[in-house]
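Hi U.,

Before I forget, here's the chain from the pilot set. I'm dumping it here mostly so it's searchable later in email.
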Amino acid sequence: MNAKTTFSPTTALRHLPPYVFAELDRLKNDARAQGVRLIDLGIGSPDLPISPAIINALTKAAHGRQSHGYPHFRGAARYLDSIGRFMRSRFGVTIDPRHQALALSGAKEGLAQIVMALCGPGDLALIPEIYYPVYARSVWLVGAEVSWVPMRANNGFVLDLDAIPEQDAQAARVLIINYPNNPTGARVEREFYDRAVAFARRHNVLLISDLAYSELCYGGEPAPSALEADPECETTIEFHSCSKTFNMAGLRIGFAVGNTDAIGALAAYRTNVGYGTATAVQHAASYALDHRTELVPATVQEYQHRRDTMIASFARAGWRI
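Structure:
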């Protein structure tokens, strides 16, 4: 008999550490199989329903013939225009939606793909030492290297840009930042983005801002955008998600905005590996962005209530949060 043929993943894929959320799922399933009752504080998967108004927009778009063919690679014109209006009304940033915006099937894939589009073997990426897993994994998958940027509790978990070795700063291709931060919940003010953009310009580094949680802030000023510090989009690309803001995680929709060259590189990568994001879903997201002031407050209120309830419950148990 012939020896059994085996198909092995690449060396880079084999050497990745276990994906934390998959490992947590395994541990949870094992515990539940043994009858353990769990309160799951793991992955932040939205459990609120999508607004009926967004569902109506999705249904209406799905019936339209324009949704039945392959979607436009860069995004539906309607969605791109809504992205432009959102950036202007929410952050005071004016972009050219046709050249500085891109539809994504969720922000996560865009974050991975921008790294894959710009980094290769031997390149260096500056990654927060407390991080969403896709940041580092996308770097490792293309054979590039990670330089960890310190985040400390005594500094409010704000990235210490001054601690980046000059050699790494000069060699790096990208710097990834994420505020409001996952998983620490830390926030930053506009001044941090001023410093981050100045760092990126000084070292010719692309600043990649993950702003997935921009609308889910409790009290105080709304979260700023890195593009407020880089309104000409000279050195910044920013990623936004409809998953958390509008409870649309299952529809896989987000967008990138920013530097024309970076958007072009990301678009070029995506055209070689896929066919874009479903048009009907883009139209639903367009409705959501255009009606965010009506849709978002109830979600924020619910999450704030849950947070306050959890903090009070933990306090009664002697845990200070």
